[in-house]
Structures are given as structure tokens and as C-alpha cells.
Design goal:
The chain has three helices and 26 strands. The protein has about 350 residues and is α/β, with parallel strands linked by helices. It folds into two domains: about 120 residues, Ribonuclease Inhibitor (Leucine-rich repeat, LRR (right-handed beta-alpha superhelix)); about 150 residues, Alpha-Beta Horseshoe (Leucine-rich repeat, LRR (right-handed beta-alpha superhelix)). InterPro entries: LRR_5 (IPR026906), LRR_dom_sf (IPR032675), Surface_bspA-like (IPR053139).
Amino acid sequence: MIQKKIKSLIYAGLGLVLCVLLCGGIGMTSQAESYGNLTYEENESGITITRYTGNKTKLVIPGKIGGKKVTSIGWNAFSGCRGLKSIMLPKGVTSIEAYAFMGCSGLTSITIPDSVTSIGLGAFGDCSGLKSITIPKSVTSIDYDVFRGCDSLAISCYKNSAVHKYAIENNIPVKLIGKNATPASGTPAKKGTTLTISSKKLQVKVTSSSKKNPTVTITKFTDKKAKKLTIPATVKVKGVTYKVTAVSDKAFKGSKKLTTVTIGSNVTKIGKEAFSGCKNLKKITVTAGKLKTISKNAFKGINKKATITVKGTKKAKTALKKQLKKKSIGYVKTWKIK
């Protein structure tokens, strides 16, 4: 009799443990469910959209599903949806996970709410149709290659935000919003503003915002693999034509791939070490007249057999050739100046 009671107690205990384990397991495992053409998973923080199977060109993601907030766009959720042109994410979404919209080549418009704090690896990779995107300052984490393959993209964001820094580091054109908004077309940017000239692979800094004579200096070459470089006489940004009047210190220093450089006719100054260490630079073309200052070590370490072609009037050419033969700029006797 006692043994039967002990057995009953043991079985009851095992049953209780099994019940707890099963119930707990069910509670911990998120299962994919469907809402229209959206597949989603429910978790403690809310709803994660895991896949879209529809063929709409415009889509608005609901803010809630089954009474729970949509908080995340999951890994690969919309990848390869080439027909999708416009999508609106709801307020409450906090994360856009890796590859979420990768390969959506037809996407031209996406609304990102100011609840989003993170954008994952390659989230918008190869969205080649995306020309502009506004990203709120709430985004504090942005992973690698988020906009890889978005060659025509310009990002609208707040100055000094995580996204602003990311865009500058990855040479993506920026349009500032908020207090530091980029001026409207036809108005020169403020002095000190950095602008990216995508077509020329150059970054410039505004040195004069005069409406009559806006000017910039070249600060950086963004194409490290390029062999040829042309510094234009002018550049046009947002409807404003700026004269390129200078090459800043160390602008092209150590660009070992460079072999040919043409310097624009409006350049008045070449900064310190501007081309130093460009050991394969063999051909330089420069226009005499406005160029008055070639700073220390500007051409130090370029190819010893470099040819420098000087254009302009006879008098201007003579004066510039004298500057080019100064040891202080890096001159060596094996250069050919003509």
C-alpha cells in the first residue's frame, strides 16, 4: 500500500515536471504566423516581420498585429522584392535587421520613423533605384555596407548624427536637415561646409559663400584606385557653381595609383605635401597665371622621371617654371618641365 502511494507521488511529480517543461518550451519558442502577405514572429518585445510574399508596388506596414506592436523588420524580410517601389514603416519599429531590403532594385521611397535606433548589415544593399532616403537622428547604430550598390543615393540626415558620420566615412552624398539644413538650390553653402562631388570623386570645402564668387578648395580624392585625376576649374553642387581655387594640404598624399594629374586653371594655391608620396605620378599638366603658391613638399616623392607641362602665356609660364624648380617643393633634376 505504501509502495503504491510512493509510486503515485513519483508519477505525479514527473507529470508536473513534464508539464512545466512543455509549457515553458511553448512559451519560449516563437512560431511564424501570417498576416495577409506578411509572415511574422511574436516575441517579448513585439512583432518581427520575417517575410513578405506579396507583389504590391506600394506597401504600408501595420503598426500592430494581433494587438502587439510591430517592432522589427527581420533578417531578409523583403530581400529580392524587386517590384516594391514604396514602403512605409510604422512608428514603433526600433530595428531594421541585416539584409532586410537587400536587392529591392525598384525601391524609390521608404519612410523610416524616428523610433528606429539600428540598421543592420547590408539592409539596403543593391537598392539601385533608391535616390534619396531620410534617416532620423534616433538611429545610433548603423552597420557595414548598409547602402552598398546604391550608387545614386543621397542621404538626408542631421549634422553630427551617427548616420551623418557614416555617410562621410563612406563617401555618400549628404543633405543636412534641421537647423543645419543644406541651403536650397542656387544658394551657396556656408563657409567651411564639406561637399561631395560624386561625378569627380572629390570632396571639397567651401572657402567663400559669396553669391557672386563662391569658391572651394579640394580636400580629398575619394577614388583610391584611380590612375588619372582632373582638378576642374569649377564644380557645380545644388545649382551653384563654385570656383576651385586651391588644393589643400595633404589632399592627395600617398595616392600611389595616380599616374596623371591635370590641375584646373582657377587654382591659385597648392598646399603642403598635396601630392607628396605619389610615387607613380609621371605626368602633370598645370595652367600658369593664377597659380601663385606651391607650398613646401607639394610634389616631394613623385616619380623621378615626371613630366610637368605648363600652359599659359610666355611670361606666366616662365614665372611658374621657376617655382617648380625649387627644391622646397620636391624638385629633382630628372623632372622634365616644359
